[in-house]
Write a structure and sequence with these properties.
This protein is α+β, with helices and mostly antiparallel strands. Bound molecules: flavin-adenine dinucleotide.
């Protein structure tokens, strides 16, 4: 099928974008970033936006740089950029380990980091990473700029705290201390498919024991979230098979898995146990 008719706008600045968005958002105007989620849903006529605001010509939104203690990722930065070590230390290594799990190469060369965050698919790798790292989302509109912490941003399946007239202008990820250990693991039925479950973990060691663990699970519930029970199970323990298994068991108990025709809740719960344990096991190899 072909998309339903729409008006196309191609602003050249953020200011122009947010003025246009304020005008057309009430008439189902939408941002077009990489188009890797929006265009297929338009082709199937699941989405019929009356206006598309294509931000690909806005140079300000191509910014990808470290500012202070944060990596700033502009709205036009493509997934594939993270293949390189774009940030110093463990953050750069974590992002380049995760990016290869997103779809296929052509999707990664068009789709954007911020587009994934704005789209908020439960199985988005970047949403899980934003949660585990405690990202800050920077929203711009004619009403001003809002900074939204990751734990307040996601609101459910493909639902966020963004208002209809807000552009997600950038996402800021905190740099990780040099001694941070990290791990990521996901399970999907075929390479490139959306994951059925994924886990991301970071922690440091103090006196040989885990301190400040952050463990997030994605793909299993309507939105990625930190699993506090799993973090508590790991805190203060040696980074050992037993500690990782205890955290994984706690994650499996804590989640309320989604179900569909192909994937039962019990199966997803079991997957959460496996991906959490494997993400933590990878953390010892990641140094
Ligand atoms: C076959 C296939 C496999 C895929 N596999 C994966 C996968 O494994 N993991 C994964 O995470 N993703 C996957 N994707 C999706 C892909 O990562 C998309 O790039 C991503 O979900 C959306 O980014 P985009 O830049 O393409 O956004 P678009 O498709 O342009 O937009 C998506 C939605 O977000 C809104 N939006 C986009 N940017 C902004 C912004 N800056 N501010 C406000 N609203 C905005 C749009 O209005 C639209 O509603 C897959 C896609 C395909 C087609």
């Amino acid at each position: 099928m072909k998309p339903a008719p729409f008006h196309y706008h191609a602003p050249k600045s953020v200011d122009e974008t947010i003025v246009l968005l304020a005008e057309v958002a009430p008439n189902d105007g939408r941002i077009l970033a990489g188009g890797q989620s929006l265009v297929p849903s338009m082709a199937f006529r699941l989405a019929r936006p009356a206006h598309l605001i294509d931000i690909n010509g806005v140079d300000e939104l191509k910014r990808l740089e470290v500012e202070g203690e944060e990596l700033c990722i502009g709205a036009c930065v493509r997934h594939e950029m993270f293949r390189q070590r774009i940030a110093p230390g463990p953050l750069g290594r974590l992002l380049s380990a995760v990016v290869c799990h997103i779809g296929h190469y052509p999707i990664r060369t068009r789709g954007t980091f911020c587009g994934s965050i704005a789209h908020a698919d439960p199985a988005s790798e970047w949403c899980t990473i934003a949660i585990v790292l405690g990202a800050t989302m920077v929203a711009r509109s004619v009403r001003g700029t809002r900074r939204i912490p990751a734990h307040e941003f996601f609101a459910g399946i493909m639902a966020t705290a963004l208002a209809e007239d807000e552009l997600l202008a950038e996402v800021r990820l905190p740099l990780l201390a040099e001694d941070t250990r990290f791990g990521f693991y996901e399970f999907s039925r075929r390479a490139g498919d959306f994951a059925l479950a994924m886990a991301a973990a970071t922690y440091r060691l103090a006196g040989g024991r885990v301190t400040g663990p952050c463990i997030a699970v994605g793909g299993a519930e309507p939105m990625a979230r930190r699993i506090v029970a799993a973090e508590q199970a790991l805190q203060g323990r040696a980074p050992s098979a037993q500690g990782f298994a205890a955290a994984a068991d706690a994650a499996a108990v804590a989640i309320d898995p989604m179900e569909d025709a192909m994937t039962s809740a019990d199966y997803r719960r079991d997957l959460v146990r496996a991906v959490t344990r494997r993400a933590l096991e990878r953390s010892t190899a990641a140094l």
